[in-house]
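Allow me, if you will, to draw on your knowledge of protein folds for a short while. I have a record of one protein: its chain in single-letter code and its fold written as C-alpha coordinates. The full record is reproduced below for your convenience:
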Amino acid sequence: MDVAKKRVLVRVDFNVSLGDSGQVLDDFRLRSTLPTIQYLKKQGAKIILMAHLGRPDGQVKPEFGLAPVKAHLEKLLGETVGLAPDCVGEEVAAMVQKLSGGEILLLENLRFHAEEEKNDADFAKQLASLGDVCVNDAFGVSHRAHASVEAITQFLPSCAGFLLAKEIENLARARDRAEHPLCVIIGGAKISTKLKLIQSFLGKAENIILGGALANTVLRAKGVAIGQSMVEDIEAKELGKLEITSSKIHLPPDALLCPDKENSALCRVGPVGKIEPNEMILDIGPDSEKLFSNIIGQAKMVIWNGPMGLFEKEAFAGGTLAVAKAIADSGAFSIIGGGETVALLEEKQLVDKFSFVSTGGGAMMEFLSGDKLPGLEALDK
Protein backbone atom coordinates (compact mmCIF):
# COMPACT_ATOMS: atom_id res chain seq x y z
CA MET A 1 0.00 0.00 0.00
CA ASP A 2 1.42 3.38 -1.04
CA VAL A 3 1.19 5.72 1.95
CA ALA A 4 3.43 8.56 0.76
CA LYS A 5 1.84 11.91 1.66
CA LYS A 6 -1.24 10.05 2.92
CA ARG A 7 -2.76 10.66 6.33
CA VAL A 8 -2.28 7.39 8.21
CA LEU A 9 -4.21 6.88 11.44
CA VAL A 10 -2.36 4.41 13.67
CA ARG A 11 -4.07 2.89 16.69
CA VAL A 12 -1.31 2.25 19.22
CA ASP A 13 -1.34 0.89 22.77
CA PHE A 14 0.40 3.54 24.85
CA ASN A 15 -1.46 2.65 28.05
CA VAL A 16 1.63 2.78 30.27
CA SER A 17 2.33 3.28 33.97
CA LEU A 18 3.28 6.79 35.07
CA GLY A 19 5.33 7.79 38.12
CA ASP A 20 4.37 10.37 40.74
CA SER A 21 5.96 13.14 38.69
CA GLY A 22 4.24 11.99 35.51
CA GLN A 23 7.20 10.18 33.94
CA VAL A 24 6.74 6.97 31.94
CA LEU A 25 7.87 4.08 34.14
CA ASP A 26 7.92 1.33 31.52
CA ASP A 27 8.22 2.12 27.81
CA PHE A 28 8.05 -1.44 26.42
CA ARG A 29 4.78 -0.78 24.60
CA LEU A 30 6.09 2.44 23.12
CA ARG A 31 9.29 0.78 21.90
CA SER A 32 7.32 -2.12 20.44
CA THR A 33 5.42 0.23 18.11
CA LEU A 34 8.50 2.06 16.82
CA PRO A 35 9.03 -0.22 13.76
CA THR A 36 5.60 0.69 12.39
CA ILE A 37 6.03 4.41 13.11
CA GLN A 38 9.53 4.51 11.63
CA TYR A 39 8.43 2.61 8.51
CA LEU A 40 5.58 5.04 7.89
CA LYS A 41 7.94 7.96 8.45
CA LYS A 42 10.40 6.61 5.86
CA GLN A 43 7.52 6.20 3.42
CA GLY A 44 6.63 9.87 3.84
CA ALA A 45 3.25 9.29 5.49
CA LYS A 46 1.55 11.88 7.67
CA ILE A 47 1.32 9.90 10.91
CA ILE A 48 -1.59 10.42 13.31
CA LEU A 49 -1.35 8.28 16.46
CA MET A 50 -4.50 7.30 18.38
CA ALA A 51 -4.10 6.08 21.97
CA HIS A 52 -5.69 5.91 25.40
CA LEU A 53 -4.34 6.08 28.94
CA GLY A 54 -6.03 4.68 32.02
CA ARG A 55 -9.74 4.80 32.74
CA PRO A 56 -10.99 8.41 32.70
CA ASP A 57 -14.56 7.12 32.25
CA GLY A 58 -15.42 9.32 29.29
CA GLN A 59 -14.39 12.54 31.03
CA VAL A 60 -11.50 14.93 30.48
CA LYS A 61 -9.20 14.32 33.45
CA PRO A 62 -5.76 16.00 33.28
CA GLU A 63 -4.02 13.14 35.12
CA PHE A 64 -4.84 10.91 32.14
CA GLY A 65 -3.51 13.33 29.52
CA LEU A 66 -0.94 12.03 27.03
CA ALA A 67 1.67 14.80 27.42
CA PRO A 68 4.08 12.50 29.37
CA VAL A 69 3.72 9.83 26.69
CA LYS A 70 4.38 12.39 23.97
CA ALA A 71 7.53 13.58 25.76
CA HIS A 72 8.87 10.04 26.15
CA LEU A 73 8.06 9.14 22.55
CA GLU A 74 10.08 12.15 21.42
CA LYS A 75 13.08 10.81 23.36
CA LEU A 76 12.74 7.40 21.73
CA LEU A 77 12.38 8.81 18.22
CA GLY A 78 14.82 11.67 18.64
CA GLU A 79 12.42 14.13 17.06
CA THR A 80 9.41 16.34 17.75
CA VAL A 81 5.96 14.81 18.12
CA GLY A 82 2.91 17.05 18.06
CA LEU A 83 0.14 16.67 20.64
CA ALA A 84 -3.43 17.59 19.73
CA PRO A 85 -5.73 19.09 22.41
CA ASP A 86 -8.38 16.47 21.59
CA CYS A 87 -8.82 13.49 19.28
CA VAL A 88 -11.68 14.94 17.18
CA GLY A 89 -12.95 18.40 16.25
CA GLU A 90 -12.06 21.32 13.99
CA GLU A 91 -8.86 22.28 15.81
CA VAL A 92 -7.55 18.73 15.53
CA ALA A 93 -8.50 18.56 11.84
CA ALA A 94 -6.61 21.80 11.24
CA MET A 95 -3.49 20.37 12.91
CA VAL A 96 -3.71 17.25 10.74
CA GLN A 97 -4.10 19.43 7.64
CA LYS A 98 -0.79 21.16 8.43
CA LEU A 99 1.18 17.90 8.71
CA SER A 100 3.92 17.29 6.18
CA GLY A 101 5.10 13.85 5.07
CA GLY A 102 7.04 12.11 7.85
CA GLU A 103 5.63 14.28 10.64
CA ILE A 104 3.87 12.76 13.67
CA LEU A 105 0.84 13.98 15.63
CA LEU A 106 -0.41 12.24 18.77
CA LEU A 107 -4.12 12.69 19.43
CA GLU A 108 -5.25 13.29 23.01
CA ASN A 109 -6.69 10.42 25.07
CA LEU A 110 -9.46 8.66 23.13
CA ARG A 111 -11.18 7.67 26.37
CA PHE A 112 -11.88 11.31 27.24
CA HIS A 113 -14.89 10.53 25.02
CA ALA A 114 -17.35 7.92 26.32
CA GLU A 115 -18.16 7.05 22.70
CA GLU A 116 -14.77 5.35 22.30
CA GLU A 117 -15.55 2.45 24.64
CA LYS A 118 -19.15 2.31 23.36
CA ASN A 119 -17.83 1.58 19.86
CA ASP A 120 -19.94 4.51 18.65
CA ALA A 121 -20.09 4.66 14.85
CA ASP A 122 -20.45 8.47 14.67
CA PHE A 123 -17.37 8.93 16.85
CA ALA A 124 -15.47 6.40 14.72
CA LYS A 125 -16.50 8.34 11.61
CA GLN A 126 -15.13 11.55 13.14
CA LEU A 127 -11.82 9.81 13.81
CA ALA A 128 -11.79 8.34 10.31
CA SER A 129 -12.25 11.78 8.76
CA LEU A 130 -8.71 12.63 9.94
CA GLY A 131 -7.08 9.93 7.82
CA ASP A 132 -6.90 8.18 4.46
CA VAL A 133 -5.77 4.82 5.86
CA CYS A 134 -6.06 3.15 9.28
CA VAL A 135 -3.42 0.86 10.81
CA ASN A 136 -4.11 -1.23 13.90
CA ASP A 137 -0.87 -1.73 15.81
CA ALA A 138 -2.52 -2.07 19.23
CA PHE A 139 -2.78 -5.78 19.99
CA GLY A 140 -3.26 -4.99 23.70
CA VAL A 141 -6.70 -3.47 23.00
CA SER A 142 -7.75 -5.62 20.04
CA HIS A 143 -9.93 -7.74 22.33
CA ARG A 144 -12.09 -4.65 22.88
CA ALA A 145 -14.84 -3.61 20.45
CA HIS A 146 -13.99 0.09 20.70
CA ALA A 147 -14.51 2.83 18.12
CA SER A 148 -10.81 3.29 17.28
CA VAL A 149 -10.31 -0.48 17.02
CA GLU A 150 -13.45 -1.95 15.48
CA ALA A 151 -15.95 0.62 14.20
CA ILE A 152 -13.35 2.78 12.43
CA THR A 153 -12.62 -0.03 9.96
CA GLN A 154 -16.07 0.55 8.45
CA PHE A 155 -14.95 3.97 7.19
CA LEU A 156 -11.32 3.54 6.12
CA PRO A 157 -9.12 0.99 4.35
CA SER A 158 -7.50 -0.78 7.32
CA CYS A 159 -4.60 -3.14 7.93
CA ALA A 160 -2.34 -4.52 10.66
CA GLY A 161 0.88 -2.85 11.73
CA PHE A 162 4.14 -4.72 12.21
CA LEU A 163 3.60 -5.24 15.93
CA LEU A 164 0.08 -6.63 15.51
CA ALA A 165 1.26 -8.98 12.75
CA LYS A 166 4.12 -10.20 14.96
CA GLU A 167 1.73 -10.85 17.86
CA ILE A 168 -0.60 -12.92 15.69
CA GLU A 169 2.27 -14.90 14.15
CA ASN A 170 3.80 -15.88 17.51
CA LEU A 171 0.61 -16.46 19.48
CA ALA A 172 -0.97 -18.48 16.66
CA ARG A 173 2.12 -20.68 16.72
CA ALA A 174 1.59 -21.33 20.44
CA ARG A 175 -2.15 -21.87 20.10
CA ASP A 176 -2.28 -23.95 16.93
CA ARG A 177 1.21 -25.41 16.38
CA ALA A 178 2.68 -25.83 19.86
CA GLU A 179 5.90 -27.75 20.33
CA HIS A 180 5.91 -30.53 22.92
CA PRO A 181 6.46 -30.98 25.77
CA LEU A 182 4.43 -27.80 26.30
CA CYS A 183 4.45 -26.06 29.70
CA VAL A 184 1.91 -23.34 30.51
CA ILE A 185 2.49 -21.15 33.57
CA ILE A 186 -0.44 -19.12 34.92
CA GLY A 187 -0.17 -16.75 37.87
CA GLY A 188 -1.65 -13.51 39.09
CA ALA A 189 -4.66 -12.66 41.20
CA LYS A 190 -7.86 -13.78 39.49
CA ILE A 191 -8.55 -17.27 38.25
CA SER A 192 -11.95 -16.27 36.83
CA THR A 193 -10.25 -14.29 34.04
CA LYS A 194 -7.95 -17.22 33.23
CA LEU A 195 -10.22 -20.25 33.63
CA LYS A 196 -10.88 -20.53 29.91
CA LEU A 197 -7.17 -20.24 29.15
CA ILE A 198 -6.32 -23.03 31.60
CA GLN A 199 -9.14 -25.21 30.27
CA SER A 200 -8.07 -24.66 26.67
CA PHE A 201 -4.57 -25.97 27.43
CA LEU A 202 -5.57 -28.95 29.58
CA GLY A 203 -5.94 -30.97 26.41
CA LYS A 204 -2.80 -29.58 24.77
CA ALA A 205 -0.13 -29.04 27.41
CA GLU A 206 1.85 -31.70 29.25
CA ASN A 207 2.18 -29.45 32.29
CA ILE A 208 0.27 -26.48 33.72
CA ILE A 209 1.87 -24.58 36.62
CA LEU A 210 -0.33 -22.36 38.78
CA GLY A 211 1.01 -19.66 41.09
CA GLY A 212 0.04 -16.42 42.81
CA ALA A 213 -3.33 -15.76 44.41
CA LEU A 214 -4.83 -17.77 41.56
CA ALA A 215 -3.18 -20.89 43.03
CA ASN A 216 -4.50 -19.96 46.48
CA THR A 217 -8.05 -20.14 45.16
CA VAL A 218 -7.43 -23.64 43.80
CA LEU A 219 -5.74 -24.76 47.04
CA ARG A 220 -8.74 -23.59 49.05
CA ALA A 221 -11.08 -25.44 46.69
CA LYS A 222 -9.05 -28.59 47.37
CA GLY A 223 -9.60 -28.15 51.10
CA VAL A 224 -6.16 -26.77 51.96
CA ALA A 225 -6.07 -24.18 54.76
CA ILE A 226 -4.48 -21.00 53.41
CA GLY A 227 -4.84 -18.64 56.39
CA GLN A 228 -5.27 -15.00 55.40
CA SER A 229 -3.95 -15.51 51.85
CA MET A 230 -5.49 -13.53 49.03
CA VAL A 231 -8.15 -15.54 47.19
CA GLU A 232 -10.92 -14.86 44.74
CA ASP A 233 -14.52 -15.54 45.66
CA ILE A 234 -15.65 -17.65 42.75
CA GLU A 235 -18.68 -19.90 42.49
CA ALA A 236 -17.95 -23.58 42.99
CA LYS A 237 -19.68 -24.45 39.72
CA GLU A 238 -17.32 -22.12 37.85
CA LEU A 239 -14.21 -23.56 39.46
CA GLY A 240 -15.73 -26.99 38.97
CA LYS A 241 -15.22 -26.57 35.22
CA LEU A 242 -11.51 -26.86 35.90
CA GLU A 243 -10.08 -30.32 36.53
CA ILE A 244 -8.20 -29.28 39.66
CA THR A 245 -7.27 -32.90 40.38
CA SER A 246 -5.63 -33.34 36.97
CA SER A 247 -2.06 -34.65 37.18
CA LYS A 248 -1.12 -32.01 34.62
CA ILE A 249 -1.80 -29.20 37.09
CA HIS A 250 1.04 -28.34 39.48
CA LEU A 251 0.53 -26.21 42.60
CA PRO A 252 3.22 -24.84 44.95
CA PRO A 253 4.25 -27.43 47.60
CA ASP A 254 5.75 -24.72 49.83
CA ALA A 255 5.48 -20.97 50.19
CA LEU A 256 6.81 -17.81 51.77
CA LEU A 257 4.43 -17.22 54.68
CA CYS A 258 3.99 -13.99 56.57
CA PRO A 259 1.50 -12.46 59.03
CA ASP A 260 2.28 -8.95 57.75
CA LYS A 261 3.09 -8.19 54.11
CA GLU A 262 4.62 -4.88 55.17
CA ASN A 263 7.21 -6.62 57.36
CA SER A 264 9.14 -9.28 55.45
CA ALA A 265 11.34 -9.93 58.53
CA LEU A 266 8.41 -11.85 60.01
CA CYS A 267 8.20 -14.25 57.06
CA ARG A 268 9.05 -17.93 57.10
CA VAL A 269 9.18 -20.70 54.53
CA GLY A 270 6.72 -23.49 55.20
CA PRO A 271 4.87 -26.32 53.46
CA VAL A 272 1.52 -25.51 51.93
CA GLY A 273 -1.06 -27.17 54.17
CA LYS A 274 0.64 -26.12 57.39
CA ILE A 275 -0.20 -22.44 57.32
CA GLU A 276 -1.13 -20.64 60.53
CA PRO A 277 -4.53 -18.88 60.60
CA ASN A 278 -2.87 -15.44 60.75
CA GLU A 279 -0.42 -16.09 57.89
CA MET A 280 -0.70 -15.42 54.18
CA ILE A 281 1.09 -16.82 51.15
CA LEU A 282 3.14 -14.03 49.54
CA ASP A 283 5.42 -16.02 47.22
CA ILE A 284 6.32 -19.58 46.29
CA GLY A 285 9.02 -21.31 48.35
CA PRO A 286 12.35 -22.94 47.36
CA ASP A 287 10.84 -26.41 46.90
CA SER A 288 8.26 -24.92 44.54
CA GLU A 289 11.00 -23.09 42.64
CA LYS A 290 12.92 -26.35 42.24
CA LEU A 291 9.83 -28.33 41.18
CA PHE A 292 8.69 -25.70 38.68
CA SER A 293 12.22 -25.26 37.30
CA ASN A 294 12.53 -29.01 36.68
CA ILE A 295 9.20 -29.06 34.81
CA ILE A 296 10.16 -25.99 32.77
CA GLY A 297 13.55 -27.51 31.95
CA GLN A 298 11.86 -30.44 30.17
CA ALA A 299 9.72 -28.23 27.92
CA LYS A 300 10.26 -27.31 24.28
CA MET A 301 7.69 -24.50 24.49
CA VAL A 302 6.71 -22.38 27.49
CA ILE A 303 3.81 -19.92 27.74
CA TRP A 304 3.74 -17.65 30.81
CA ASN A 305 1.15 -15.17 32.04
CA GLY A 306 1.11 -13.77 35.59
CA PRO A 307 3.46 -13.61 38.61
CA MET A 308 4.04 -16.21 41.31
CA GLY A 309 3.54 -13.88 44.28
CA LEU A 310 3.27 -10.30 45.49
CA PHE A 311 6.16 -9.41 43.24
CA GLU A 312 5.53 -5.66 43.43
CA LYS A 313 7.50 -5.85 46.68
CA GLU A 314 11.13 -6.85 46.24
CA ALA A 315 10.99 -9.29 49.18
CA PHE A 316 8.29 -11.33 47.42
CA ALA A 317 9.60 -11.23 43.83
CA GLY A 318 12.00 -14.18 44.22
CA GLY A 319 9.62 -16.85 42.96
CA THR A 320 8.65 -14.89 39.86
CA LEU A 321 12.30 -14.23 39.04
CA ALA A 322 13.19 -17.89 39.63
CA VAL A 323 10.56 -18.92 37.09
CA ALA A 324 11.87 -16.30 34.65
CA LYS A 325 15.42 -17.59 34.98
CA ALA A 326 14.30 -21.21 34.60
CA ILE A 327 12.55 -20.32 31.34
CA ALA A 328 15.59 -18.37 30.13
CA ASP A 329 17.86 -21.36 30.87
CA SER A 330 15.51 -23.95 29.35
CA GLY A 331 16.25 -23.25 25.71
CA ALA A 332 12.52 -23.62 24.99
CA PHE A 333 10.59 -21.35 22.66
CA SER A 334 9.07 -19.00 25.23
CA ILE A 335 6.18 -16.56 25.20
CA ILE A 336 5.36 -14.17 28.02
CA GLY A 337 2.54 -11.66 28.42
CA GLY A 338 1.07 -9.46 31.13
CA GLY A 339 2.11 -5.85 31.67
CA GLU A 340 3.30 -5.98 35.27
CA THR A 341 5.30 -9.18 34.83
CA VAL A 342 6.96 -7.76 31.72
CA ALA A 343 7.77 -4.55 33.62
CA LEU A 344 9.59 -6.56 36.32
CA LEU A 345 11.58 -8.48 33.72
CA GLU A 346 12.45 -5.20 31.98
CA GLU A 347 13.73 -3.86 35.29
CA LYS A 348 15.84 -6.99 35.83
CA GLN A 349 17.04 -6.96 32.19
CA LEU A 350 15.59 -10.40 31.49
CA VAL A 351 13.12 -9.55 28.70
CA ASP A 352 15.54 -10.36 25.89
CA LYS A 353 15.89 -13.88 27.29
CA PHE A 354 12.40 -14.74 25.99
CA SER A 355 11.57 -15.74 22.42
CA PHE A 356 8.55 -13.44 22.27
CA VAL A 357 7.12 -10.88 24.68
CA SER A 358 3.49 -9.95 24.06
CA THR A 359 2.26 -6.39 24.62
CA GLY A 360 -1.15 -7.75 25.60
CA GLY A 361 -2.29 -9.38 28.82
CA GLY A 362 -6.03 -9.84 28.41
CA ALA A 363 -5.78 -9.89 24.62
CA MET A 364 -3.10 -12.59 24.76
CA MET A 365 -5.22 -14.77 27.06
CA GLU A 366 -8.32 -14.41 24.89
CA PHE A 367 -6.39 -15.15 21.70
CA LEU A 368 -4.75 -18.25 23.16
CA SER A 369 -8.11 -19.38 24.57
CA GLY A 370 -9.50 -19.43 21.04
CA ASP A 371 -11.75 -16.39 21.42
CA LYS A 372 -12.33 -14.09 18.46
CA LEU A 373 -10.84 -10.63 19.00
CA PRO A 374 -13.03 -7.78 17.63
CA GLY A 375 -10.01 -5.81 16.39
CA LEU A 376 -8.74 -8.77 14.38
CA GLU A 377 -12.18 -9.76 13.14
CA ALA A 378 -12.69 -6.21 11.85
CA LEU A 379 -9.47 -6.42 9.81
CA ASP A 380 -10.48 -9.81 8.41
CA LYS A 381 -13.74 -8.30 7.16
